[in-house]
Amino acid sequence: MALEDRLELFVTQHARPLVALFAVAGILCLVGAGYIFFTPTTQTVSEEVNVQTIESAVETSAVVTGESSLYDRGETLENRSAYFISAAPVLSFHVQTDVPSDQPVTVSQQLTMETVGVRDGEPFYRSAETLLEEQRRVSNGSVVAVRSINVSEIRDELQTKRAETDGIGRFRVRLQLNVTYQTDSYEGTITTSAPFVISGQAYYLDGSVADSKTHSTAVQRAVPQPANPLEYGGLTLLALVSFGLCGFVIRTEDTTDPEALRTRISHSRHDEWISEGEFPTESEKQYISIRTLADLVDVAIDTNRRVIYDPDIDVYAVIDGSEIYYYSTDDLHARAWLNL
After folding, report:
1. β-sheet bridge partners, residue 182
2. How far is 270 from 290, CA to CA, in rounded Å?
3. Separation between Cα atoms, residue 146 and residue 129, nearest integer Å
4. How far apart are CA 167 and CA 117, in angstroms?
5. What pTM did the predictor assign?
6. CA 283/CA 286 separation, integer angstroms
7. TM spans, by residue (predicted)?
């Protein structure tokens, strides 16, 4: 109770500064909420523009020219997992590079077949044959070139090499594609390869000879962000609280008696020196009015007396022989008690 009284007394004593403080705080919160709501922030994001993709690949085909129970003569085989020399000894490589079609692009394509003799993981022989090499400037978005090889001749050459080396080591064949390009914004190289396997009558590419590259340019762009309801809502709530505190201070100042609050605070502070009782009026007694309850308690301490409190008439008093020291916040009650 004493803490509440002290707080109420503080509010009453500093009412005007507190009202001004809460009013300014409320206005600032409202201004801040309005600024946040009507002035959205921006966030910088990175965006990829002018995206261009270049794709290169090698596809295979062979026409059946030999006798075969698997295929009909004259049939075209495409992108098979295996071909057979007895049925289709000639293999065609179709090299295709796809580029952006909305601009002229310079493309160079090179297809190479490399033969390497290897023993214990180290090469002892290497040769490379360029099957296809060309450069074009195209605007239709695609470059296609075709080169055919006789696989039976390649097999015979490998058998000759094996015979010359008396079976020492192994000979491996690899097909490699190199593509260089230049668009209006980018340039680059694509390199990809796969083993070319000849095993008896069968031959095949052991993997895909294909790859691609994508180019783009990163640009920064400011994107407006919507106002955060927690931010402007929180400031609006603080403004309402501030204005509510203004009203509370004004109402407290209008309805509170500061002197009564001081008396209650002093009563609580010096409660051990105060006892409740009733005061009879005696004309032979001398009544001395004390300005504050704290002063009256000092009198009680100095005279080694107790303070008597009569709640019916709201009067405090110290009786010292023929003298009565008293204090009251209500003059009407005090005068009635004294029969004045």
Report:
1. 106, 187
2. 16
3. 15
4. 11
5. 0.58
6. 8
7. 18-38
Strand partners of residue 197? 204
Angle formed by the axes of helices 258-269 and 2-13, to 10°?
A: 150
Instruction: Per-residue pLDDT tens, the chain, 340 aa: give them.
Output: 556 656 665 656 666 777 777 778 878 888 887 877 778 788 888 888 999 999 999 999 999 999 889 999 999 999 999 999 999 999 999 999 999 998 999 999 999 999 999 988 889 999 999 999 999 999 999 999 999 999 999 999 999 998 888 878 899 999 999 999 999 999 999 999 999 999 989 999 999 999 999 999 999 888 887 877 787 778 788 878 877 877 776 776 666 666 665 666 666 666 665 555 455 555 566 777 887 888 888 888 888 888 888 887 788 888 887 788 888 876 666 666 666 4
* Dist CA 315 CA 246 (whole Å): 34
Helix (H, G, I), strand (E, B) or coil at 47: strand
B/e letters for 185-222, b = 16+ CB within 10 Å, e = fewer, are: ebeeebebbbebebeeeebbbeeebeeeeebeeeeeee
Cα–Cα separations (whole angstroms), residue 156 to 117, 160, 166, 199 = 15, 6, 15, 12
The separation between CA 321 and the C-alpha centre of its own chain, rounded to angstroms, equals: 82
